[in-house]
Write a structure and sequence with these properties.
The chain is mainly α and 141 residues long. The chain contains six helices and no strands. The chain has helices spanning 2-30, 33-40, 47-67, 75-99, 102-109, 116-138. The radius of gyration is 19 Å and the shape is globular. The termini are far apart.
């Protein structure tokens, strides 16, 4: 009876996780973020590769978070991964903001006609500094 209960919990957890992950990946792809990113970088023929990498990255990232296995490749690998993750998140956030016209709506609301690139740079720097502060002082890692 205990085995059936645990099997049910495993199946329910995997099913719920798969549904949530599929929803996140569907949001990213249905809004057109990957296609827009591929269009902006003139690499449209790799749009499917981008979407596949997002799905695989999310899957492996979740497995790594759950099981916390070690990757003994040294500090240089950590630096390279950190930079790659930061660039990816920055590009993804800015692509989302551009796709939803957040910057244009914000600029129109506050009647901003000059300096929009500075606003975008400020948003990116604020995001970066906020992430740095969190991981430096708040995360306990």
């Amino acid at each position: 009876m205990i085995v059936l209960k645990q099997l049910f919990l495993v199946l329910a957890g995997l099913g719920a996780g798969a549904v949530v992950a599929a929803g996140v990946f569907a949001l990213i792809t249905s809004v057109g973020l990957m296609v827009r990113l591929a269009g902006k970088t003139h690499t449209g023929k790799y749009a499917k590769v981008y979407e596949t990498c997002v799905a695989l990255g999310g899957t492996f990232g979740n497995l790594w978070y759950l099981y916390q296995f070690r990757v003994p490749l040294g500090a240089w690998f950590l630096v390279v991964c950190g930079l790659a993750f930061g660039v990816y998140i920055g590009v993804l956030v800015m692509s989302l903001a551009e796709s939803l016209n957040v910057t244009a709506i914000f600029a129109r609301r506050i009647r901003l006609s000059k300096g929009i690139p500075w606003v975008v740079l400020g948003i990116a720097l604020g995001k970066g500094l906020g992430a740095w502060y969190f991981y430096q002082f708040m995360s306990g890692v």
